[in-house]
């Protein structure tokens, strides 16, 4: 379970996020939509623990994983190491997750040998390999063609349903929100506030 009671988040003189509260229990998927530049990624980075410079209180589980808009793999490490090093998973566990995302046998590949869709799958495998209690998805399917998005959506839905983390998903895509979100909210305004739908 994640609980955030935010007073404000600013970058220097600019207040990006206003007061907002958010709670997500395990098994729930909170889908956040909102205009570009309102602060969705900023909010997600706070929830992920990447940005700790905010006013307010947060109760978050220790095992958190984030899937970014870009897969951000270490290009100088093989795929298998991209799973084991950041997560502490064993090679067997990493192979298991590669297999789950349809990349069985890709462990010895270099990230530069992967298509964007495959790199996204590795990003997803890496997130699940850390056995997250909180999973944060920041536009994880952006710039893939429709068929690939559908495949990845189904896969993500299956893995979430099996592992039951609390999930926060930011997306502009109605299809993704419709398929994954169990609850929806809109982030809008300047400073931005969260309104449940
Ligand atoms: N490190 C930073 N320093 C200063 N301003 C920042 C920083 N990061 C984000 N911002 C500003 O905060 C605002 C919110 O940015 P953010 O990336 O969170 O928006 P977003 O809703 O995720 O946008 P998009 O949907 O386009 O990804 C923007 O005005 C952006 O310019």
TrEMBL record:
Keywords: ATP-binding, Nucleotide-binding, Transport. Residues 1-197 form the ABC transporter domain. Gene3D superfamilies: P-loop containing nucleotide triphosphate hydrolases. The keyword ATP-binding applies. SMART domains: AAA. The keyword DNA repair does not apply. One of its GO terms (molecular function) is ATP hydrolysis activity. SUPFAM superfamilies: P-loop containing nucleoside triphosphate hydrolases. Belongs to the ABC transporter superfamily. This is NitT/TauT family transport system ATP-binding protein. It comes from Rhodobacter aestuarii.
């Amino acid at each position: 379970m994640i609980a955030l009671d935010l007073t404000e988040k600013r970058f220097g003189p600019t207040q990006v996020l206003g007061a907002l509260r958010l709670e997500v229990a395990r098994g729930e998927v909170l889908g956040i939509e909102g205009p570009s530049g309102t602060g969705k990624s900023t909010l997600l980075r706070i929830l992920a623990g990447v940005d700790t410079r905010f006013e307010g209180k947060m109760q978050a589980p220790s095992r958190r994983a984030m899937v970014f808009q870009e897969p951000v793999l270490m290009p100088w490490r093989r795929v298998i190491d991209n799973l084991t090093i950041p997560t502490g998973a064993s090679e067997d566990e990493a192979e298991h997750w590669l297999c789950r995302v349809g990349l069985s046998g890709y462990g010895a590949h270099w990230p530069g040998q992967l298509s964007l869709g495959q790199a996204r799958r590795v990003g997803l495998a890496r997130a699940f390999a850390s056995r997250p209690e909180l999973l944060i998805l920041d536009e994880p399917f952006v710039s893939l063609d429709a068929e690939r998005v559908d495949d990845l959506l189904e896969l993500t839905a299956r893995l979430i349903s099996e592992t039951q983390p609390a999930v926060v998903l930011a997306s502009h895509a109605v299809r993704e929100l419709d398929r994954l979100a169990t609850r929806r909210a809109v982030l809008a305004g300047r400073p931005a506030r969260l309104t449940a739908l």
